[in-house]
Structure formats: structure tokens, C-alpha cells
Amino acid sequence: MEKLTVFSDTYFMQQALKEAAKAESEGEVPVGAVVVCNNTIIARAHNQTEQLQDVTAHAEMLAITAAANHFGAKYLSECTLYVTLEPCPMCAGALYHAQFAKVVWAASDAKGGFMRFGNLLHPKTEVQKGLLETESSGILKLFFKQRR
Description:
This protein is an alpha/beta fold. The protein has helices at residues 9-25, 49-52, 59-71, 89-98, 133-147; strands spanning 32-37, 40-46, 79-85, 102-107, 126-129. α1 (9-25) packs parallel to α5. The longest helix has 17 residues, at 9-25. The chain is globular and about 40 Å long. The N and C termini lie far apart (36 Å). The relative contact order is 0.16.
């Protein structure tokens, strides 16, 4: 088990889970994301598709935009995205073009995730999946169970 430090993948995914909790409290699908560069969180976001009435307002898209604005640049090749759910194809396309160094997600998404189409990320992007999967999957399952 990875030792929990401020600069660990687990710590940063826990921060993404905090964003997912914000989404849930707002009635949004509980997905959260953080962008990290040089062991510093430079962007935080959660799903806001209902609030903004915008199908593109996924946590990843909002985090990418915030990170690009932070740097004043479109390429995020020194950054890592931590997200609580496997990105959809739309978000994977944005991640491809932003050229992230690494993408880490918690829960896989067999129905909506991009991996069902193969790896759509930039060839230089490292992928890690399943970090805090149980926690993220539990939040998502409970969210949808309560709405059915």
C-alpha cells in the first residue's frame, strides 16, 4: 500500500473525491478532478452539467480549462490529471490535445469510458487506473441508486 503523503497519488485522488462530493451535494453526477503539476494542485473541478446546462461541463473539461488558464498555455505536458471516473471519449480527446504527462482514474466506466475504443490519449501520456476505485464506485452506485 502506498504511504499517504501530501505528494502521493492517493492524496491527490482523495482531493478529486472531495470534488466528487461537491458535485453530489449539488445534484450532479459525483465526478471530481484535480490537475497537479510539480506536486501542486493547480486546478480543481467537479461535474457541473446540470448547473451550467452544458453537456461539456464534465469535471475533466473544467479542470483542463482551469489549468490551461493558470499557465496561459494549451499544453499541460508536465501535469497529471486525477479523476474519480474513467474519462469519456470527449474528455479523452481534450486530454489528448492537452498532452498530459499522466492520467489517473479511480473507477472504470464500461459503458461511457473511452477505453472501450482503445487508448485515445496522447502516446506519451502514462495511464494509471483503479486508484481508490472502491471509494469512487461506491459514491457513484449510491448516487444512482437514490435516483432510481
